Amino acid sequence: MKNLMVAPSILSTDFAHLGKTLETINRSEADWLHVDVMDGMFVPNISFGTPVLQAIHKHNKKPVELHLMIAQPERYLEVFSKYGEQITVHAEACLHLHSVVQQIKNLGCKAGVALNPHTSLGSLEYVIKDLDTVCLMAVNPGFGGQDFIPDTLEKIKELKQLIQRKDAKAFIEVDGGVNRNNVKEILNSGADAVIAGSSIFNSNDPLRAIQELRNPLIR
């Protein structure tokens, strides 16, 4: 069985100890850092903006995926491109999704598209070959600590079929409710990577938690 790629989502960390969190992630087996940017409009929560991203950029040693849970993300792509190797936008937030994807690539970043649980895979039909990543939300976006939506497993399988049918290269991320109890099913359904927050940062041993998510067979 292959290992999953794992990206800790810092939304679930204690921000009073952000520096300590970044030190832990730097020492971990995590493949990259997942940073959720929320505007209080596209999702009912506000996370943080460029001052925090600047601090992360200064102290973090892992690649960064910026997950923009914001309305009209094309307004800020140039600014955010300074702080992440990949920018992931929501299909639901983009009036012209193909154009936004091309903007991201033109800025020198990898391009990802996230889909909310209710959003059909049909929205990716004509952009899938341009994407580096598809991020399937397994919870409704905006808050950490939610339970995994089981129907996501079938959606992963259907997305895998779409990628193969279109001869695309995008890999599949799953974000939300991921933990040691469901990660094996997520892997077996065809996912390449998981985003995890609460299951890592609420653990007594975040390094071990990341390791267990990367390789469900080590338990």
Query: What is the CATH top level name?
Result: Alpha Beta
Uncertain segments are none
The coarse overall form would be globular
Structural class designation: alpha/beta
Task: Please identify, by name, the CATH architecture.
Answer: Alpha-Beta Barrel
Strand content: 15-25%
Mean pLDDT: 94
Strands of the largest sheet, in order across it?
A: 1-8-7-6-5-4-3-2
By CATH's scheme, which homologous superfamily applies?
Aldolase class I
How many separate domains make up the residues?
A: 1
Quaternary state reads: single chain
Order of helices and strands: EHEHEHEHEEHEHEHH
Rg over CA atoms, rounded to whole Å, is 16 Å
Task: Walk me through the topology.
Blueprint: E1 5-8, H1 18-27, E2 33-38, H2 50-59, E3 64-69, H3 77-80, E4 86-90, H4 97-106, E5 110-115, E6 133-137, H5 152-165, E7 171-175, H6 183-189, E8 193-196, H7 198-201, H8 206-214
Parallel strand pairs: 1-8, 2-3, 3-4, 4-5, 5-6, 6-7, 7-8
Short description:
It catalyses: D-ribulose 5-phosphate = D-xylulose 5-phosphate. By secondary structure, this protein is an alpha/beta fold.
What tags apply to this protein structure?
alpha/beta; TIM Barrel; 219 residues; 8 helices; eight-stranded parallel β-sheet
How does this model look, in words?
The active site is at 36 (proton acceptor), 175 (proton donor). Catalyzes the reversible epimerization of D-ribulose 5-phosphate to D-xylulose 5-phosphate. Substrate binds at residues 9, 67, 142-145, 175-177, 197-198. The protein is an alpha/beta fold and 219 residues long. Helix content is 31%, strand content 19%. The protein has a single domain (5-218), classed as Alpha-Beta Barrel (TIM Barrel). The protein has 8 helices and 8 strands. It has an 8-stranded parallel sheet. The radius of gyration is 16 Å and the shape is globular. The mean pLDDT is 94.
